[in-house]
Amino acid sequence: MFFRPLPAALALGLVLGSAAGAGELRQAPTAVLELFTSQGCSSCPEADALLAELDRDEHIIALAYHVDYWDYIGWPDTFGAPANSDHQRNYAESWGSSRIFTPQLVVNGAEGVVASRRQEVDIAVQNAVLELPVGLAAQGDTLRINIDPKPGLGEAVVWLVTFIDRADVAIERGENEGKKIAYSQIVTDRQVLGMWEPDAGAELKLPLAEVLSDSADGVAILVQEDRNGLPGRIIGAASFVR
């Protein structure tokens, strides 16, 4: 697991959100899809396009983590970050594996499939279930989060993930040289908000201007089990795109 301290403006508040503002809210997803991709990977554009297609489904929250370990072959990914590569390695370690690859799609933090194999992806998505509802509302200049108690589940981490909804990139070198590729749901940051307790739930309030800035126009809230510092199952999620 990795995180950095929250700015003071992102302090937790005991406020329940009740009304949504402008933008797109997703509060009843069945699947969180985390794509590990790279602009320098010749087999990734097909997976990038599939993620954009799947994101049209209101029951899916799609997130693209651009890794940096292919940068050496000639094209540094413009969205690549060591933290994204570390997140993928942490999944592999959590599953008892030492292998990471692109394009890989992780479904609800529970399993990874080859993201360019449509049949494998479809089966994993169809079988996906999120057990914990996450209430999310953008009201004025505030983003409000309400996660009800649900005894029987284990304690979990509440993550804030910001992303860019869409960007077009002209690839000038490397395996995808000469291509202009449309990317979607590009993760820009991932940080811990706090803990969700099954007997108490969690209520949070965040200033929207601090969460969404020029570098991000979407936010996902993920409730994810922790496995001794490694990522476990995602049990609940919601998202908002401005």
Radius of gyration: 17 Å
- Kindly state the number of beta strands: 12
Widest sheet, order of strands: 1-12-11-8-9
The class by helix and strand makeup works out as alpha+beta
Helix content: 10-25%
Poorly predicted ranges: 1-21
Element-by-element helix/strand order: EEHEHEEHEEEEEHEE
Mean pLDDT, nearest integer? 90
> First CA to last CA: what distance?
28 Å
Largest sheet: 5 strands, antiparallel
Taken from the alpha-carbon principal axes, the silhouette is globular
The share of residues in extended strands comes to 35-45%
Number of helices, counting only DSSP H or I runs of 4 residues or more: 4
Summarize the structure.
With 242 residues, the protein is α+β, with helices and mostly antiparallel strands.
Provide a descriptive summary of the structure in words.
The protein is an alpha+beta fold and 242 residues long. Helices cover 15% and strands 40% of the residues. The chain has four helices and twelve strands; from the N terminus they run ββαβαββαβββββαββ. The chain has a five-stranded antiparallel sheet with strand order 1-12-11-8-9, covered by helices on one side. Strand 2 (31-37), helix 1 (44-54) and strand 3 (60-66) form a beta-alpha-beta unit. The model is unreliable at 1-21 (pLDDT under 50).
